[in-house]
Amino acid sequence: MNTPQVSILFSHSSSHPHALLYPAFSGRVSRIVADVGQTVTAGSTLAELASPEFGAAQADTARAQADVQWTLKQLQRQQSLFEAGIVARKDLEQAQADAARAQAELERAQARTRLYGSQAGVNQQLSLTSGLAGLVVERNLNPGQELRPDLSGPALFVVTDPSSLWVQIDALEKHLPDLKPGTALELTVPSWPDQRFQARLQTVADFIDPNTRTIKVRAEVSNPRRLLKSDMLGTVRLHQHNHSGVVVPASAVQLLSGQHTVYVQLEPGVFEPRKVKVGNESLSEVLVSEGLQTGEQVVKQNSLLLSREFKSAREALEGKPGPGRSAP
Q1: Is residue 60 part of a domain?
Q2: pLDDT score of 278
Q3: How many distinct structural domains can be found in the chain?
Q4: CB neighbours of residue 102 within 10 Å
Q5: The CATH number of the domain where 200 resides is what?
Q6: Which comes out higher in pLDDT, residue 50 or 150?
Q7: Are residues 22 and 143 in the same domain?
Q8: Radius of gyration of the chain (CA)
Q9: Residue 234 and residue 137: Cα distance in Å, rounded?
Q10: Helix (H) or strand (E) segment spanning residue 289
Q11: Which domain holds residue 145?
């Protein structure tokens, strides 16, 4: 039998995965390619900046390429002179070291410009590209806007992959034994009451909220049809089958003298109070692990009123005054 539901919360910050784009160089926005709601591929250009600072980085790469060519020629010359016995070994070794340093500088410069999609040459054109395939959900720049990497503010673009979302769960403390990475979960949301979304538990927090006695849990849910949206509320059910029992509404269970009790219908109008043991529970459901058989009918509504009537009847049989009555 599945365990009861626990509350979950979708939030925009839990969109998974997502990419935040910030400027790496100063510049002015010359062209915007992508806008909010547009689907993009990994590596596609979202906007372009005219950046003299980036142009300087491109020029550094060009100079490094020229230095490599010059040092290689010098190395070849020193190698020939050394083989002819004209120069000493130290001169050859110095040429080898100069060539190695030039090559290292070229690789450093190329890595910096290649990271931002620079082609050969110096054009001062910096492309802002998406690091993943997904959907543009935020755009915070406009044509002609001046950008600097040291300015604080929102990301220029936010790209998410809506086909996979993170689910933030506030689980009850008593659910901890079942909350393990890899555990299967079933998600439902009010917007799609007939849909069941399959999720997989990823991480469990290392601390419990002292006020709510809940623990933060994160799961990942597949969303290929994009029915789920950020900031949705819903419920999840643990796919655990090692907890046998019967799930009943939380309103059917009363705590009487420290003992969980349900009222079983024996026949129409005839009820029996029965002590039970409960397992996992939530605000809406309780797992009865002992004392109740599958198929037995329990009082789901007004069980508290029925409990009071049983108490009054028992006290009357014992000669004790019930509520609103005085002893003779």
Answers
A1: yes
A2: 85
A3: 3
A4: 21
A5: 2.40.30.170
A6: 50
A7: yes
A8: 35
A9: 22
A10: strand 285-290
A11: 18-156
